[in-house]
Amino acid sequence: MPDYFHGYTVVGLVAVVGVLFVCVAFAAGRLLRPVVPTREKMLTYECGVDPVGEGWAHTQIRYYVYAFLYVIFAVDAIFLFPWATVFAAPGYGGTTLAEMFVFLGFLAVGLLYAYKKGVLEWT
Fold first, then answer.
1. How open is the CA angle 85-66-45, to the nearest 5 degrees?
2. Contact 44, 51 (CB under 8 A)
3. Is the pLDDT of residue 63 over 70?
4. CB atoms within 10 A of CB 87
5. Which residues pair with 46 in a beta bridge?
6. pLDDT (0 to 100) of residue 1
7. How far apart are CA 3 and CA 88, in angstroms?
8. Which residues contact 100 (CB under 8 A, 6 or more apart)?
9. CA 69 to CA 72: how far, in whole Å?
10. Residue 74 pLDDT > 80, yes or no?
11. Is the pLDDT of residue 62 over 90?
12. Which stretch, 6-15, 38-47, 74-83, 88-97, has highest mean pLDDT?
């Protein structure tokens, strides 16, 4: 029984050491940094340009939609690698091929829906 929990003990110890390392690093940074607040240091920083106008700006939703579509297809690419490795194993060819076509079909339907809604048009 002690050998069974040995793996969990190592993982737990590494997690505790990692958390302690982060806590010590933050505490050391807080203790060692100079604290001299000035008016210029308290201003909002915008890439070296003095802030002008309000702090809120309107952003078009299509940027978020493109980012979301990228994430979807990145996840699709991540799923293709394990599928290819299982597809090469004997006895799994037809089943994994059918499952991947179902998966790609769902993605194609989602992309077609986005295209029909006009999401992919950049105007």
1. 115
2. yes
3. yes
4. 16
5. 49
6. 58
7. 35
8. 80, 83, 87
9. 5
10. yes
11. no
12. 6-15
* Count of residues making up the chain: 123
How large is the greatest C-alpha to C-alpha distance in the chain, in angstroms? 70
Strand partners, 49: 46
CA distances from 38 to 41, 42, 43 (A): 5, 6, 9
- 78: DSSP letter: H
Tell me the pLDDT tens digit for each residue of 20-44: 999 999 999 999 998 888 887 777 7
CA 85, CA 1: separation in Å to the nearest integer? 35
Do the beta carbons of residue 122 and residue 62 sit within 8 Å?
yes
Structure-token pair, residue 20:
């302690």
- Yes or no: say if 81 and 87 are a contact pair by the CB < 8 Å rule: no
Cα separations in angstroms, 19 against 5, 28, 31, 55, 91: 21, 14, 18, 35, 45
In contact, 104 and 73? CB cutoff 8 Å: no
- Output Rg (C-alpha) for the chain, integer angstroms: 26
Amino acid at position 35, single letter: V
